[in-house]
C-alpha cells in the first residue's frame, strides 16, 4: 500500500518557501510518499522547468536510491 500526501506550492499558497533548485521558480509540487518498507520520502517536481528531485529527511536522494529501496523490500 502506498500513502501519498500532495502539497502544491505556488506564490499565493505555500506554507514554506520552496523554489526549484534549477530555475528558482516557486511553482513546485511536493508529494510525501511512504515506500513499501515504511520509509518516508518526499518527491518534488517543478511545473516550470520539469526538474524532479527526492528527499529523505534533510538529505537529497536520487531516483536510483529510491528504486533500490523499493527493490530491496520486494526481495
Question: What would you note in describing this structure?
Answer:
The protein is α+β, with helices and mostly antiparallel strands and 75 residues long. It has one domain. It is built from one helix and five strands, in the order βββββα. The chain has a five-stranded antiparallel sheet with strand order 1-2-3-4-5. It is elongated and about 40 Å long.
Sum up the structure in keywords.
single chain, 75 residues, alpha+beta, five-stranded antiparallel sheet, disordered N terminus
Which spans of ≥5 residues are poorly predicted at pLDDT below 50?
1-6, 8-14
Compute the CA-based radius of gyration.
13 Å
> In order across it, which strands form the biggest sheet?
1-2-3-4-5
Structural class: alpha+beta
What's the helix-strand series?
Answer: EEEEEH
Percent of residues in beta strands?
A: 35-45%
Largest pleated sheet:
5 strands, antiparallel
Please report the distance between the alpha carbons of the first and last residues.
16 Å
Overall form:
elongated
Number of domains: 1
**Portion in helices:** 10-25%
Helical stretch tally: 1
* Number of separate strands: 5
Averaged pLDDT: 81
Would you spell out the secondary-structure blueprint of this structure?
Elements: E1 3-9, E2 28-34, E3 40-46, E4 52-56, E5 59-61, H1 63-74
Antiparallel strand pairs: 1-2, 2-3, 3-4, 4-5
